[in-house]
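Give me the fold.
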Amino acid sequence: MMISVSSDMDEPVARLLVEELRRRGHEVREHGALRSGADPQWAVCSEAAARDVAEGTSDQAVVCCWTGTGASIAANKVPGVRAALCTDAGTAEGARRWNDANVLALSLRLTSAPLLTEILDAWFTAEPSQDPEDVQNMARVGRLDAARKVS
């Protein structure tokens, strides 16, 4: 799987994230402070990673900033992106299952190495729900995205 990763700061947890994704067999496209010469501003690099997902050049993305909030906000402005700020494995699993999230947002401040592993395990093992209510909710989110593209 191709995964875009962005971070506004070159922090150890961001480097560990890239290493862990590669260890799991994923290809990684780096943005922001993780790539020499790239713009590290959280809004810029989070948008770049999210656009990779929206345009289909990446299957998913992980966007990082100090709190994870700005990265998730910027990513969610890209139509077709469903970014979820996850600070624990349960939230990551739910974001994939009930929200079909395609972008994981992480806090550089809160995410330790063990927590990162738990979050990634949950994120990559969860599948989108086929429950009719969940499918209906995701269809509504899709219509919201379509309406934004027209505006």
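The chain has a mean pLDDT of 96.
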